[in-house]
């Protein structure tokens, strides 16, 4: 009986930890770290991320944040771009696409 259990336990697939992909990305600031004005305890400011990393790294920089933080950033972008909104607020990719598109227009 124990041998059968051990065989079945060995066959059970193991779950790999969820990977967000963000740990693989090395962001290179385009301004001096001393010039960074992002408040780690305040609302996420996508305009500051754009200034720190440029449009080419903005998507990668935003992907490091939770959907909740990204929604805060979206509210700021919507204030500066009335009449525009993301396709969906429930999908992280849609929120990031919206922020990058709006900031790329400026």
List keywords for this structure.
single chain; 106 residues; mainly alpha; elongated
Structural class: mainly alpha
Helix content: 40-55%
Distinct helical segment count: 5
Number of strands: 0
3D architecture notes:
This protein has one domain (28-104). The longest helix is centred in the last third of the chain and has 14 residues, at 67-80. It is mainly α. The mean pLDDT is 84. The radius of gyration is 20 Å and the shape is elongated. It has five helices and no strands. The protein has helices at 2-11, 46-53, 55-62, 67-80, 92-104.
Summarize the structure.
The chain has 106 residues and is an all-alpha fold. It contains 5 helices and no strands. Helix 2 (46-53) crosses helix 3 and helix 3 (55-62) runs antiparallel to helix 5 (92-104).
Helices and strands, with pairings:
Elements: H1 2-11, H2 46-53, H3 55-62, H4 67-80, H5 92-104
Helix pairs in contact: 2-3, 3-5, 4-5
């Amino acid at each position: 009986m124990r041998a059968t259990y051990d065989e079945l336990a060995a066959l059970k697939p193991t779950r790999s930890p969820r990977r967000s992909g963000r740990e693989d990305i090395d962001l290179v600031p385009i301004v001096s770290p001393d010039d960074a004005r992002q408040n780690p305890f305040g609302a996420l400011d996508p305009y500051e991320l754009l200034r720190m990393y440029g449009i080419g790294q903005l998507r990668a920089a935003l992907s490091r944040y939770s959907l909740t933080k990204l929604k805060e950033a979206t509210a700021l972008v919507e204030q500066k771009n009335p009449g525009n909104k993301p396709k969906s607020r429930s999908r992280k990719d849609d929120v990031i696409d919206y922020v990058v598109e709006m900031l790329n227009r400026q």
